[in-house]
Amino acid sequence: MNSELLLKFILLPVLAVAVLLKPVWAEQHQVVFDPQSSTQRIEFEQQITGNEFNDYQVSADAGDTLNVTLTPSNLSNYFNILPAQSNQAVFIGSVEGHYAKYQLSKGGDYIVRVYLMRNAARRNETSSYKLTIIKHNDGNMTIKTMHPSWDSDGDGINDCENEGSCDHTIDYTKPKSKTAN
What we know:
The chain is α+β, with helices and mostly antiparallel strands. The protein has 4 helices and 9 strands.
């Protein structure tokens, strides 16, 4: 077999795959609130298509509460909340819904990531949405933190998150019982 024909057999499939693969597009937004206000609110009206996703970075202090509401045109459109520099979500919209009220136990940057579920993304569907992010701090609110017994590897993430076994009926601020997994 001559080398020109061999190259065609090798390069043609590689080029076909490169053309068919569509890059994932992410828009990133820095959410800036008025520091003089105790309750801060911002709204975005945007859309995504296919594998695209939009990130909204929010800076917050420990004890702040994030209220996030997503109003999508496509019911396969959700959002997650995750600490910046982490892939471990603290809120998963496809499981918990289009509304989150999440009190932050640690300060820092958090990402609100808006995306389409895989079923809609594969069909290259589009969703227009309105995202409302409210950040507030009620000084009277106690900050709930995870008891260290729920974090056996010391990574700051509840062990149940890694195991996929979290139970909303358990108070993770209290020590882990001997019978708990």
